[in-house]
Amino acid sequence: MSVRNLSEFILLAALWGGSFIFMRLSGPELGVFPGMALRTALAALALLPLLALRGLLAQLHRHAGKVLLIGMINSAIPFALYGYATLHLSAGFSAILNATVPFWGALVTWLWLGERPRISQLLGLVIGFAGVVMLVWGRIDLRVGGDGWPILACLLATLLYAVSASAMRKYLSEVPPLVSATGSQIGATLLLAPLALLQWPSATPSLTAMASVVVLAVVCTAFAYVLYFRLMAHVGPVRATTVTFLIPVFGMLWGALFLAERITVQMVLATGVILLGTALTTGVLKLRPAH
Length: 291
Prior knowledge:
mainly alpha
C-alpha cells in the first residue's frame, strides 16, 4: 500500500469513526429513517455539483441501474441498521462492531470472487478478530431488553458492507469512484425517503441535531465515500474494508472527547491488537518466509 493510499486509509477511518458520534447526537431527535434519509440526500447534493464539474453525469446515467442498487445495499440498509443500533449502543461500542467488515469481506471475496487470502492476510484477520473479541468481551447480552438486537443489526450491516464491496469490484470496477459514490447516495435516498416521511418527527429538531446530520452527510458520507471508492479501486475490496479495523480506535477516541464515553485499559490493549491485525491484512506489515 502506497503512502498516499495509507494516508487516505487513516483519514477514512477517522471520518467513519466520527460518524457514530453524529448519529448518536441526531438519532434521538430525528429518528432512524428521517436521519438516514437526510444523511444520504445531503451527501448526494454535495456530490452532484462535483460530478457535473468533472463531466461525469453521463457516466452516472449509463451505469444508473447498478450504481443505484449498490447504494441500497451499501448505504440505505446499513445506515438504517446502524441508525437504529446507535440509539441503544455507545459510539465506541458501535464502532467496535463495525470492525467485523473485513472478516465478512474476506469470506465473501473467497466464496464469490474466488480470491483466496494469503497466509499473512489470514493471520491479520485472525489477530484483528481477537482484538475485537477483547473489546466486546462481557458486553454482549442477547436477553430481552439487552443489547442483542442492536448488536445483530450492526453485524447485518457489516455483512452488507462486505457484499457490496465485492459487488462493486465485480460490476463497477471500471466506474469512476465519484460516480459510484454519488449514485450510491441517490439510490439510498430513493429507498429511505418514503420511510422517512412516515416517521418524520413532529417536533422541530434542535440545531445540534441538524448540524450533526449535515456534518454526517457532507464530511462523513460524501467525502468519505469518495475516499472509500478510491481505495476500492486502488487496493481491492479486502484491503479497503480493513479500514474498519481502525474505526473502533477513532470511534472510542471521539466518543471520549465529545461524549465523555469511558476508555478502559481493556480497550487500549485490544486496540493495539487490532492495529497489528490491520497492518498484516493491508500488507503494511509482511511476514518473511522461513529459510
